[in-house]
Design brief:
The complex is a heterodimer of chains A (498) and B (303). By secondary structure, chain A is an alpha/beta fold. Chain A folds into two domains: 154 residues, 3-Layer(aba) Sandwich (D-Maltodextrin-Binding Protein, domain 2), CATH 3.40.190.10; 228 residues, D-Maltodextrin-Binding Protein, domain 2, CATH 3.40.190.10. Chain A has 19 helices and 14 strands. In chain A, strands 3, 6, 13 and 14 form a four-stranded mixed sheet that branches. In chain A, strands 8-11-7-12 form a four-stranded mixed sheet. In chain A, strands 1-2 form a two-stranded parallel ribbon. In chain A, a hairpin with a 2-residue loop joins strand 4 and strand 5. In chain A, helix 11 packs across helix 18, helix 12 packs across helix 13 and helix 18 packs antiparallel against helix 19. Chain A is globular and about 70 Å long. With 303 residues, chain B is mainly alpha-helical. In chain B, 73% of the residues lie in helices and 3% in strands. The two termini of chain B are 30 Å apart. The relative contact order of chain B is 0.12. Classes of the chains: A alpha/beta (498), B mainly alpha (303). At the A-B interface, helix 1, helix 4, helix 18 and helix 19 of A face helix 2, helix 3 and helix 14 of B.
Chain lengths: 498, 303
């Protein structure tokens, strides 16, 4: 009897546990991940088989408005209703998906990505090479988007002639200024508008003046989370240098960020800290710290993307009218140039999406105005979004470098958002003019092992900002040597594809 | 469990027999056994396997032998990570090992407000890890931090705590000690309360002072606890990860990067799960080595 009882008990427990662990089967440890994330090849012919009328399709898309964002929520509801009306067979679930490097891989590997998500160009290499993006070349052609995308962006998300995403917003890095602090230091022209610096030496001198007038160290430079390397790359270009050199003949890459120009850039940064003493006190931080300091009117200059200061408003209650923007100033070493690192976001379809789901995602994007096709609905979307941003005190009016090049598109979009502009566009003119008239040279991120390079450069930036005796040339020589040996040499010899 | 010693029986039969004899015990163990297999052993084995493969996401795609290990060991930051990990461990032994013992002895002597003091000592352990790390980053802030504000009262110049390559590890270890000493102290306290009070009385009659009593009675009585805590602390601190990640991101200039942080960077920043697993395996081997060394020394000492 005892034996029978224990056997029954054992059986029950096994059953209970099997039930408990059922979800675990789709976790990354098992092959559920592989099954869920089949490589992108089979999605190519998505548009050729449009969903049969009435066949139910479910998709999940990024972009859930915050609980507190009442205007945003209302617009989302209207958009969902329109979608339902136009495509009754498609059910859209809007989810909260902030792209985050810490959570992306587990989500992707376990097949939990939304059908439609978005990310930054900086992540394109990793995401495409790891097979987390569906090949949407055919859909792009089918919907007629390919020719309308800014070619510079298209290049960033294409591999071997295949397209893995739809660019949705773009920018070149610029220099954010805190206008109020410029005014406090008397750095204004005869009309009372702030005068922005035109080269690196002028920038340092202005930072000193602002520090004298306000008591705050005026220049911000991040050093953590690969952002030190990211911003340093921009700095090297501004000083006329480059990071990686491609040798077409041998198909090899060489790390060249220990050139004289790069050393000039690092030396300048070191001087900003030790000679002029104008770099923020807390060195070990990323741009989140800049968002805070800008909101508090405690920092006057930082290299950033144009939409980043919205975080100052949203997270730290900053006032958007205190800010302005110019291009990143050329280095004052005789070789400097006006150049900006290209960035932005692109929309990705999860690799496990079916052809019908992928098509439905395009329908959704068309509706929300993420695509180059201008319809009444998309124009309305622009206006709606601008209105919500205005209500939340965000930046409205600066388009930067739209993903679509058609001048008609740009002018119509500008007209749609005009009633909601939140800032004095004059303060952004140096940036927007340079972007529009082509005097601001645009540069895509280094192509090979970019994030790994940034991480190594983080260390160099941290070294010169925390150690007065650091030697820029020695630091960069070692960094270039390490990066060459650890990554580029292996890449060159074909031992591993990125 | 009664072992069957019949040498002539084949192995399978012996196990089957042992199993039949203890079927009740096995049934009782089954739930935790299954949980262990799913959540501890299977990931452990998977990690080992993954470290031998080129990976895509978390999926192994190509067997590459020890290439991941060669790659991570060759990388320049790896050396720094190994040295730093040992530095963390040593500093934590210097700063963190005696503190809970002293605290426990003091707590044991307290006559009034016992519960209050025990709670106070344990309190930091309740604070979530990352929150504690952020809190201490604020304390160490170069200008507006609590520490430098206090120092400025005494006319001491601001010290860039976490930004100083030589101070950063001790600073992080102080935070870890603050966070962890309470729970260890409670364990020591429990052990102290088991010490026979008659020994103290006898010693008192013999004229022993406070220090003498501590040295000759208290310490020997809880020495078994020392060795356990020592191994636990080394294993724990060797895996230091979220503290430097939150406070310094491994900086300045890799001065606070640790082995597990390196593994995290590979896994989540560069999406190279194979290399991340390789670093994990190396850390595992280090720990096994240290544990064996410890047992070897202990046995030698006992003899």
């Amino acid at each position: 009897m005892k034996k029978v009882l224990s056997l029954v008990l054992a059986l029950l427990m096994v059953l209970a546990l099997a039930a408990c662990s059922a979800p675990a089967e789709s976790t990354p440890a098992d092959d559920g991940g592989a099954a869920a994330q089949t490589p992108a090849d089979d999605g190519g012919d998505a548009a050729e088989e449009p969903a049969a009328e009435g066949e139910p399709i479910e998709i999940s898309v990024r972009g859930l408005p915050k609980e507190t964002d009442t205007a945003g929520k209302q617009i989302m509801e209207t958009r969902l209703a329109t979608m339902k009306e136009k495509y009754p067979n498609v059910t859209v679930e809007v989810v909260d998906f902030p792209y985050d490097v810490n959570t992306f891989l587990p989500k992707a590997a376990s097949g939990q990505l939304p059908t439609l998500y978005n990310t930054f160009f900086t992540e394109a290499n990793k995401i495409i090479s790891q097979g987390f993006a569906l090949d949407i070349t055919d859909l792009m052609n089918e919907w007629g988007y390919t020719d309308k995308v800014n070619p510079a962006y298209l290049e960033l998300i294409s591999r071997d002639g295949k397209i893995y995403g739809l660019p949705s917003s773009g920018y070149a890095l610029g220099m954010w200024y805190n206008v109020e602090m410029f005014k406090a230091a008397g750095l204004v022209d005869e009309n009372g508008n702030p005068t922005y610096p035109t080269n690196s030496t002028e920038l340092a001198e202005m930072a000193v003046k602002i520090k004298e007038a306000t008591g705050y160290k005026a220049y911000f430079f991040p050093t953590k989370n690969n952002q030190g390397g990211w911003m340093f790359t921009q700095l090297v270009w501004s000083f006329g240098g480059d990071m990686e050199q491609y040798d077409e003949e041998n198909d090899t890459y060489t790390a060249i960020f220990n050139s004289q120009e790069a050393v000039d850039a690092l030396q300048w940064l070191k001087d900003m800290r030790w000679k002029y003493d104008v770099v923020q006190d807390n060195i070990l931080c990323d741009t989140t710290e800049a968002h805070k300091l800008f909101a508090l009117d405690q920092i006057a200059m930082a290299q950033m993307a144009q939409d980043q200061l919205n975080n100052s408003v949203t997270n730290y209650n900053g006032d958007i009218t205190h800010f302005g923007m110019g291009t990143i100033v050329p280095g004052d070493n005789g070789k400097g140039k006006s150049i900006g690192l290209l960035g932005g976001t692109f929309e990705v379809i999860a690799p496990n999406a079916t052809a019908e789901q992928a098509n439905a995602c395009f329908q959704w994007m068309e509706l929300e105005g993420t695509t180059p096709n201008l319809t009444e609905e998309t124009l309305q979307s622009f206006a709606d979004n601008a209105m919500v941003d205005q209500e939340n005190g965000k930046l409205v009016g600066v388009l930067g470098l739209p993903a679509w090049t058609d001048p008609d598109y740009i002018s119509q979009r500008k007209a749609a958002i005009e009633p909601y502009v939140t800032v004095d566009l004059e303060l952004y003119k140096p940036y927007t003019d340079a972007c529009e008239n082509g005097t601001y040279e645009l540069h895509a991120e280094p192509p090979v092992y970019c994030q790994e390079m940034y991480k190594i450069l983080d260390s160099c930036v941290q070294a010169v900002l925390t150690d007065e005796n650091a030697d820029p040339q020695a630091l960069l020589d070692k960094a270039a040597e390490d990066f060459q040996r650890d990554y580029l040499d292996k890449y060159n010899s074909g031992a591993e594809a990125q | 469990m009664q072992l069957v010693t019949g040498k002539k029986k084949p192995l399978v039969k012996r196990f089957a027999h042992a199993f039949r004899q203890d079927v009740g015990a096995w049934v009782l163990m089954l739930p935790s056994l299954i949980l262990f297999i799913f959540f501890v052993w299977q990931p452990l084995v998977n990690g080992l396997i993954l470290s031998l493969f080129e990976t895509k996401g978390f999926d192994p795609v190509r067997f590459i032998g020890l290439q991941n290990f060669i790659d991570v060991v060759q990388e320049s930051s790896f050396r720094a990570a190994v040295i730093n990990t040992f530095k963390y461990t040593l500093w934590s032994l210097v700063l963190g090992f005696p503190l809970p013992i002293l605290t426990a002895v003091m707590l044991n002597e307290v006559k009034r407000f016992k519960a209050f003091f025990r709670f106070t000592v344990y309190f930091p352990s309740i604070v979530p890890g990352v929150a504690a790390a952020i809190l201490w980053s604020l304390i160490y802030h170069p200008t507006s931090g609590l520490l430098n504000s206090l120092l400025s009262v005494f006319g001491v110049d601001a010290i860039p705590w976490l930004q100083n390559q030589n101070l950063v590890i001790p600073c992080i270890v102080i935070m870890m000690t603050w966070k962890g000493f309470g729970s260890t102290a409670i364990l020591y306290l429990a052990s102290l309360q088991g010490v026979n009070q008659e020994l103290y009385e006898a010693a008192m009659i013999d004229g022993a002072g406070v220090f003498r009593k501590f040295w000759n009675i208290t310490l020997p009585s809880i020495s078994g606890m020392f060795s356990l805590m020592l191994v636990m602390q080394i294993i724990g601190v060797f895996q230091v990860m979220y503290e430097p990640l939150t406070m310094t991101d491994g900086g300045p200039n890799n001065a606070s990067i640790s082995l597990m942080l390196t593994s995290y960077f590979y896994g989540f920043r560069f999406y190279q799960a194979g290399r991340a697993a390789a670093v994990g395996t190396i850390t595992f081997l280090f720990l096994i080595g240290l544990t064996f060394l410890y047992f070897y020394l202990q046995r030698k000492n006992d003899n």
